[in-house]
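REQUEST FORM: STRUCTURE PREDICTION
Request ID: SP-0412
Submitted by: Lab K.M.
Chain count: 1
Length (residues): 333
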Amino acid sequence: MKKPTMTIFFILAGCALLLSGIWIYFQKMMERVDLAELRNSRAYERHYVLIADDGNSMLWDSIYESAVQEAAATDACLELVQPDDNPEYTQEDCLRIAIASKVDGIILRPDGSREMQELIAEAADAGIPVVMVLEDDSSSRRISFVGLNSYQMGDAYTEQVLGLLKPGRTEIMILADSEGGDVDTGLVSSYMARTVEQRKAQDQTVDISVQSVDSSSDFNAEEVVRDIFMDEEGLPDVLICMDEVITECAYQALVDYNEVGNVDIIGFYYSDTILDAVARGTVPATIALDMAEIGRYSVDALDEYLSLGHASSYYSVDLNVITRENAAAFAEG
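STATUS: Completed
RESULT:
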């Protein structure tokens, strides 16, 4: 009987030593914890997610900066999810994760896919409102769209086009994101064609065409833009870019193929490179929405819907036309 007793004693002693070791390790780890950080941590009433795409990071940073401030003012936490941070996840994957996490609201730019429409419907069924920014998909079950409508966009581009028309024929090509709304692109081009026809001079003829570009990756956009610049039938006189990725690719091709002065680019939004090109006159103008307003209105739409059960289906934001005269102001701010 003595031998089993000794075995049990050693087992218990070993367990006691193990537990003591774990306790000492835990105490040391606790000493390393930043207590100030713990004191500053807090629980929020609501949790929102902004799902960016792989477009211009400056654009999404501007939206997020204003949105997170607006969210904090209403006791909500806003989380930014970017594909660049998680290359293995698509935008749809991020949407699935947000739904599974039971967040209180989602902000995103739609890609026009059937899969995303179905996921937005799934979010709606789960009581999670979805707000779309920059581009709209009115056939989905989103609660609101924050941006510009097609007529506002068409008017902004048309004003710039009219200043670039020359005597005789002017070829204009609209480069539109193939994953965006085809209906919106059609409305912009038809509005532009109608307005330009009414306001052009008698000795001017204008041809407007639309080219779809897959801007989901820089490579796809670069390939389409490169083919346009290598077309043996000749380049258009004006390229209208309706996406920030397309704008960057078009400008790079303009420089690479030594076509500066032969082709005018009207861009969408801006980066440091595009602002520099506008300031030097290489790019006549670029159209920029007020991204701070987009961030604020997106959060406002979610707050209103969750508080009242409804929200405005459309929030219009201000538009800025950046030209050589005011490019420096945007570079500074």
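NOTES: The chain has two domains: 46-148+291-317, 150-289+322-332.
Reviewed by: T.R.
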